[in-house]
């Protein structure tokens, strides 16, 4: 009986907490989502809309991560490969660290200081993350040259649909 209980607990923890594919795959961001504020490493606030405007005319990969996230850390080598394979794509890293200090330490520890990084100082639950149905990280979104969503849901950087989407957009 004790073994069965342990087995059931292991199953709940292994399969009970995982990413769920959103029921609706969105193709545009809402006004509220675009207005969401983040902070850069210097503490300057910027909205999602401003970030996307900086990359207007470019394909952008939004990479959601955190230094405490084992799945994110395991994905880093594949994410780096994706970045190296696509020099004409802009990569924007959106951190879900629990504190500003944690964000800055993770940038250093994981050699991310030279990349475009922002931190959700508002925490996990905010207008942007709620709109995109963010329920787990890592998560990747491909944004097209018009700042529309081209690939809404990917959980690994080596998902072939990410590269297929990039290739179609850069034709």
From TrEMBL:
Q: Which SUPFAM superfamilies match?
A: Thioredoxin-like
Q: Which UniProt keywords apply?
A: Cytochrome c-type biogenesis, Disulfide bond, Redox-active center
The UniProt entry, under InterPro entries, shows:
Thioredoxin-like_fold, Thioredoxin-like_sf, Thioredoxin_domain, Thioredoxin_ResA/DsbE_sf
Describe the location of the Thioredoxin domain by residue ranges. Answer: 27-171
Indicate where this protein resides in the cell.
Cell envelope
Source species, domain of life = Bacteria
PANTHER family reported in the protein's UniProt record:
THIOL:DISULFIDE INTERCHANGE PROTEIN DSBE
Descriptive protein name:
Thioredoxin family protein
Supply the source organism for this entry: Epilithonimonas ginsengisoli
């Amino acid at each position: 009986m004790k073994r069965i209980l342990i087995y059931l607990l292991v199953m709940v923890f292994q399969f009970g907490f995982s990413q769920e594919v959103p029921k609706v795959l969105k193709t545009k961001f809402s006004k509220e989502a675009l207005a969401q504020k983040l902070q850069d490493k210097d503490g300057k606030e910027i909205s999602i809309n401003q970030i996307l405007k900086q990359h207007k005319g470019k394909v952008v990969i939004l990479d959601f991560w955190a230094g405490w996230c084992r799945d994110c850390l395991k994905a880093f080598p594949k994410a780096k490969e994706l970045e190296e394979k696509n020099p004409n794509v802009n990569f924007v890293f959106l951190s879900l660290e629990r504190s500003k200090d944690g964000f800055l330490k993770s940038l250093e520890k994981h050699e991310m200081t030279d990349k475009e990084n922002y931190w959700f100082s508002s925490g996990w639950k905010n207008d942007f993350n709620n709109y995109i149905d963010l329920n787990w990280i890592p998560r990747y979104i491909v944004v097209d040259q018009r700042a529309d969503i081209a690939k809404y849901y990917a959980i690994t950087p080596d998902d072939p649909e990410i590269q297929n989407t990039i290739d179609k957009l850069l034709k």
